[in-house]
Design a protein that fits this description.
Elements (H helix, E strand, L loop, with lengths): L1 E6 L5 H13 L2 E5 L3 H5 L7 E4 L3 H4 L7 E3 L20 E3 L6 H16 L2 H9 L16 E5 L3 H12 L3 E6 L11 E4 L3 H4 L5 E4 L13 H4 L7 E4 L8 H10 L4 E4 L19 E3 L10 H19 L15
Parallel strand pairs: 1-2, 1-3, 3-4, 4-5, 6-7, 6-9, 7-8, 9-10, 10-11, 11-12
Length: 320
Amino acid sequence: MREIAVCVGFMNDKYRRTVSEAAEKLGFSVSCYDSEAALAEEIGRHEVIFGHPSPELLRKAESLRWLCSDFAGVEKYLPEEVWPHPGCLLSNASGAYGPTISEHIIMVLLMLLRRMPEYQAALSRREWPYFAPIRSITGSHAVLLGTGDIGSNTARRLKALGARVTGVCRGGKAEEPAFDRVLPLAELESVLPEADALILALPATAETAGVLSGERLALLPETAFVINVGRGSAIDQDALVEALQSGRLAGAALDVMTPEPLPEDHPLWSCPNTIITPHVSGNMSLGLTCDLDVEMFCRDLARYAKGEMPEHLVDRVRGY
């Protein structure tokens, strides 16, 4: 029988039953592993792996035909040398994280607009301030750099709260109707001067590295906020620190940085109006994310069993 290895940290009895029942109907057997060390002992016999094994371990998966990562970011699997042989398929969990990360974006954007970092700093000193004016999502202009699952989920929520939403992506097209317009990346500079919030939701690829350069940061108005939930490598971090410290930007909310964890003496910690979170906007802390992740794997498994490509197939050259 064709064999599947499942090694994900959020697995429970319900998910084991769901995956096993779906697999058995398609002629697969499932082995669940509680740790990578346990998987390592038997990784050579599995045709399919659902999880995120280290690249070092992946190279030993001699029977592998398809790796279904339970993460959306799969940059560690892009080099050819991490694969046991050519032709292995890679898919990711893009589609599972949109709800939770978009809610994180809305949370931190509201905190910045309503001056919560200033209130938190004052209250920690046991002061009782009143800061005015505050700002609203209603009537604001949000620029979303990245129009995939996370960008589209965020656009819908921002639109419902009264924002004007511009999407920017590689091809300049997106199916999500919540975007008022979608521009190609080559036109990013034209929209930055009118942004109230620039939100980055990009994967780590050669194209996205440093996309928000110091020159592009300088095009943002002083009232703008920068929010990053993609990868820290997308921003010229030194330029961002300088802009925040000098007051050239109104503030930032960063869930991703370079490096991670952020060193204790890094200047980002003390930048004004800056919200730092330790790469927690996604992960598996929300039950809905886990539900969606398992559902997506089961759907793609049905496609794979019929000889079709997984819906969430990753192009290892493009990186997504």
